[in-house]
Amino acid sequence: MKAVVRGFLARVKTVCSIGGERRLYDMELKLELACVGGLAEDTRALLAAGANVNAANIEGYTPLFIASSQGHADVVQLLQTAGAKK
């Protein structure tokens, strides 16, 4: 799973250079996948690039909830430091 998520996140730097609403959606989707996969480095990069730490997905789950439910304590800590609320 981590390999699939990591491959998808390989485009983070490219996506972060694209402007507008599509850029934000892509960043939030990538943040969600980073949280699912426990990818702390990618999570850090996305947060630094402006991904919304409290953006809920279509099911209403936030990055913090996702990382926590997957047991990724290092990612949870990053999200909380970045201001994640729930």
Features:
globular, 86 residues, mainly alpha, Serine Threonine Protein Phosphatase 5, Tetratricopeptide repeat
Walk me through this protein's architecture.
The protein is mainly α. It has a single domain, classed as Serine Threonine Protein Phosphatase 5, Tetratricopeptide repeat (Alpha Horseshoe). 33% of the residues are buried. Helix 3 packs antiparallel against helix 4 (40-48) and helix 5 (63-69) runs antiparallel to helix 6. 64% of the residues lie in helices and 0% in strands. The protein has helices at 2-9, 12-16, 21-37, 40-48, 63-69, 73-81. The longest helix has 17 residues, at 21-37.
Helix percent band: 55-70%
User: Main sheet, how many strands, which sense, barrel?
Assistant: none
Q: Topology as H/E string? A: HHHHHH
Mean pLDDT: 81
CATH superfamily: Ankyrin repeat-containing domain
Q: What is the molecular shape?
A: globular
Counting DSSP E segments of at least 2 residues, the number of strands comes to 0
Please state roughly what percent of the residues sit in beta strands, choosing from under 5%, 5-15%, 15-25%, 25-35%, 35-45% or over 45%.
under 5%
* Number of structural domains: 1
